Amino acid sequence: GEDVEQSLFLSVREGDSSVINCTYTDSSSTYLYWYKQEPGAGLQLLTYIFSNMDMKQDQRLTVLLNKKDKHLSLRIADTQTGDSAIYFCAETDGSSNTGKLIFGQGTTLQVKP
Amino acid sequence: GAGVSQTPSNKVTEKGKYVELRCDPISGHTALYWYRQSLGQGPEFLIYFQGTGAADDSGLPNDRFFAVRPEGSVSTLKIQRTERGDSAVYLCASSLTRVGANVLTFGAGSRLTVL
């Protein structure tokens, strides 16, 4: 079945770039997503990328997609302490037409001042 | 409403009791999803509604779990004979359209603790 894998933890210094990586298994996924979850809050959509694209940039966020390797990454430039959160990668379930998302287990980003 | 609203935000119950969790989606959103998030894990899909009907309930773990959306808006997730393993945050999300990217807007969740 579908599976999404992420590394569990990343620590960076304020002002550095952060790169969060994700691998997925469903080659029929049409869109891939990045969500952010702050403590006690729901998931907030950060950005998404269509599977036919290689890269998408949105202000400080850059998404890279390697469809051949089924690898997705999220780069956050000039990381701030407010970026500390859990980041989830998600793929569309390509085997159904429900639009449901399959999530990874999340990467905790710690930003040190 | 402005966002997805979930009530209660916290629920503590005893093993064997019945629990209802409510989700009020964004007005006009026809698609509604329930997810369950255990500690340290990503959200796991439970059930999807398109309008009033449950179009995909493949994620419900067993027949103790049931969800309804009688008028195509508010949804209720019902858990019978709760077990300690049911303790988790239950997330609801809604979306407007599945044309293009399916942008799910999540509520803050209902934290269920079964003692």
Could you characterize the architecture of this molecule?
The complex is a heterodimer of chains A (113) and B (115). With 113 residues, chain A is mostly beta strands. Helix content of chain A is 0%, strand content 56%. Chain A contains no helices and 11 strands. Chain A has strands spanning 4-6, 9-13, 18-24, 31-37, 43-50, 55-58, 61-66, 71-76, 85-92, 101-103, 107-112. In chain A, strands 2, 4, 5, 9, 10 and 11 form a 6-stranded mixed β-sheet that branches. In chain A, strand 4 and strand 5 form a beta hairpin. The radius of gyration of chain A is 14 Å and the shape is globular. The termini of chain A are far apart. By secondary structure, chain B is mainly beta. In chain B, a hairpin with a 6-residue loop joins strand 4 (31-37) and strand 5. In chain B, the strands form 2 sheets. In chain B, strands 2, 4, 5, 6, 9, 10 and 11 form a 7-stranded mixed β-sheet that branches. In chain B, strands 1-3-8-7 form a 4-stranded antiparallel β-sheet, with no helix packed on it. In chain B, 37% of the residues are buried. Chain B is built from no helices and 11 strands. Chain A binds chain B through residues 4, 31, 33, 35, 40-45, 48, 50, 88, 90, 92-93, 96-106, and chain B through 4, 31, 33, 35, 40-45, 48, 50, 55-56, 91, 93, 95, 98, 100-109.
